[in-house]
Amino acid sequence: MIGDESDTDDLLTQQARRESNARTYPRSLPLAIDRAEGAILEDVDGNEYVDCLAGAGTLALGHNHPAVVERMERLLERDRAVHTLDLTTPVKERFVDRLLESLPDEFAANAKVQFCSPAGTDAVEAALKLAKTATGNRSMLAFQGGYHGMTNGALSLMGDTAAKEPIPGLMPDVHHLPYPHAYRCPFGLGGEDCWRTSAEYVERTLSNPDSGIVDPAGMIVEPVQGEGGAVPAPAEWLREMRRITREREIPLIVDEIQTGLGRTGELYAVEHADIVPDVMTLSKAVGGGLPLSVVVYDESLDVWEPGAHAGTFRGNQLGMAAGVATIEHVLENDLDDRAAEMGDRLRGHLEETAAQFEAVGDVRGRGLMLGMELVDPDGEPDSLGHYPADGDLASAVQSEAFDRGLIVETGGRHGSVVRFLPPLTISKSQVDEVGEIIRESVRAVVADDRTPTEVPT
């Protein structure tokens, strides 16, 4: 038995012996967490890290924010119920009030809220079920590069084929359309030609009686692809998807599980395009760091019979209390604006690094949802002059950054994108520290592992 005095190596060894081979983060981030506050993690050996993973974007206010802790303590001190199925409580009604208050007015005015099982992927499953029930159709439209979770229906929507190939019997009738990835355009086009061609392709496909696509139950899209590599959809393209789906009476489902509640510099990423979806999936930040997920949708789709969708833990009162505290703090302190400001500051650092090293191919994202794509300058450029994605280099940068006290994630094509999802409360000095660590990590990896490729200044 390993006690409280065990070091990181002991705990990681025990974890590897007892936990599933499916575990992921400990393989690239070998730490055993002891304490956490704000944007800082401390491991059991006393090492501190700036956390730019933040629960995969869950911790909008960072670790153990006083407003969240106080709200949960208050609930427990007053002997409130913590498990209520879908029975109502004052805490639950306050959560719905604050959630609707945070949403765009036009969407909130006609919205219904469905509480689900507590993971974001459960919200996606519920949204699929809702769209199919409301329309009577079965096929779904998704996008290349998309990520919506790891349950059966959500996994079927995923663009990454490697994650799906070992799984038999995924949900049929999912059609993956081209996402307007400006740097890795599926059509090999640059500038606005990429999103315009993507929009035209989608419209022509849905208008073509020989496309092989039966009437869709819905279209699901991330306004910024997260696991796909911090790829923002142009506002004009999102407006086109809204027009195309509305004209064809196809419910538009917007996955805001990672983007929602301020992360992209607006309270919700759809606000960058000023569109109103039919359905929105939410989790992560709205639970204040605790498990909670909801589907918010237009009341015209509310055709479910009582009990048609349920979940034992849809009444997580601690999650709702934490969510209330988080939503209120974000609204009262304009943390969406702060995310835009700190995102610009961090992006400036990343672009400085890109200017110094040819191995940094692209810097992209919105607000505090940023990505830096690593490339192989010795490879053959594509039609746009972009070098091949280099996942090994990104992993090396992640490892080097970890050794220097920074936690980042990788994602995107071939895992080549170093991703940044810090708390919205991250300080200017911490942003500057992140920028410096990443710059020196790229410098160290490029210098150690391959011919130096610094761009002359």
From TrEMBL:
Question: What is the name of this protein?
Answer: 2,4-diaminobutyrate 4-transaminase
Similarity-based family: Belongs to the class-III pyridoxal-phosphate-dependent aminotransferase family.
Keyword tags: Aminotransferase, Pyridoxal phosphate, Transferase
Q: Which Gene3D superfamilies did the record assign? A: Aspartate Aminotransferase, domain 1, Type I PLP-dependent aspartate aminotransferase-like (Major domain)
GO MF entry, a single one: transaminase activity
User: Lineage, please?
Assistant: Archaea, Methanobacteriati, Methanobacteriota, Stenosarchaea group, Halobacteria
- Which species? Haloterrigena turkmenica (strain ATCC 51198 / DSM 5511 / JCM 9101 / NCIMB 13204 / VKM B-1734 / 4k) (Halococcus turkmenicus)
Q: Which cofactor does it need?
A: pyridoxal 5'-phosphate
Question: SUPFAM superfamilies, alphabetically?
Answer: PLP-dependent transferases
* NCBIfam families linked to this entry: dat, PRK06938.1
InterPro entries associated with the record: Aminotrans_3, Aminotrans_3_PPA_site, Dat, PyrdxlP-dep_Trfase, PyrdxlP-dep_Trfase_major, PyrdxlP-dep_Trfase_small
Tell me the segments the record calls region Disordered. Answer: 1-23
The domain of life is Archaea
Regions of biased composition (Acidic residues) lie at: 1-10
Q: In the UniProt record, does the keyword Hydrolase occur?
A: no
